[in-house]
Amino acid sequence: MHNQNNQHNASPRWWILIPFIVLAVFYLGPRFTELISRQQASPRAITPRGDFSSKEQTTIDIFNQASPSVVYITTLADNVNPWTWNVVRIPSGTGSGFVWDRHGHIVTNYHVIANAQAAQVRIEDQRSFSASLIGASPEHDLAVLYINVALNQPPPVSIGTSKNLQVGQDVFAIGTPFGLDRTLTTGIISALNRRIGVDNNHEISQLIQTDAAINPGNSGGPLLDSSGRLIGINTAIISPSGSYSGIGFAVPVATVNRVVPQLIRNGHYQRPILGIRVDDQLSTIASEQLGINGILVLNVEPGSPAEKAGLRASHLLGAHGIEPGDFILAIDGRAVTKLGELLDLLDEYAVGDTVELKISREGQTLTIPATLAASKNLTSRIRR
Q1: CATH number belonging to domain 64-146
Q2: Residue 105 annotated as catalytic
Q3: Catalytic annotation on 219?
């Protein structure tokens, strides 16, 4: 009996180990499995994707077609060491541009190269060239540079039209924002015929408004339509911070295609003029008093197209106000009521073109021809 009890007491109590076994399996099992999975890790099979959507493919094709025509511009300024008086040229700004033709002409914004002593242009294959300023039109914020590329010239950008643009159509902007090489952004045309002031002296008109992201460094780059054609040059943004805020502007290609050839030929742009002086405030007052919708001619310059056409100026009557002269109602059938509208219309013509002026004179409506002349206020010519 005594032996049997001892044998019973000596038997292992294995059931006490069950909780420890459970805990070990719970904690060590996943780690063991993880260790095994790490040792057996291999690349996962690639899930095939379908074709690009038609919109994606269009965007890809546009970038591949147009990006070789886009260039990166670095402007340089002279820096004088105050101790040695040595002059060193240092980077002062960056911007974008694009290849205009096969002769080495690069188009960009005037404000990109304004006040720079020199500029460098880097093309798609990363070659850099010293650029010469051929001509500029601050009134249109346009400038033309020249680089001498003897071999493997980058292709010119395809030219479109801005006359049939529609609000809501897709647009594509390519540029070098913040120095990042050839960046593509997309958006739509948000509005047309916008006007913004660039300084105290003049405005840029007929601009395209877009929500495609435009940031510092995008200036001078192309705005393209869904066929990859140039429809504008990205020129400005409205932003409290200076970065993209959804409102950007581009100079329309119709303006570019009119101004750039003159800059290449002459180094400046010749604005066609009538040779009259106008004041919007006085025009508005006189128009309201007389019930006329037009622009009051205050003064006529001697020898100008206006004088040759027989336009009559207004006369000051001292304290009694003015004696109104002619009112210009329309040019070639297109109505004008403000000086800006008049300048925009004249800018669509060339020096030497003849236009029909519809005028109001002493209660009568007349139509007279006038041959446009060149403005004497020209941008200084800059030679290569």
Answers
A1: 2.40.10.10
A2: no
A3: yes
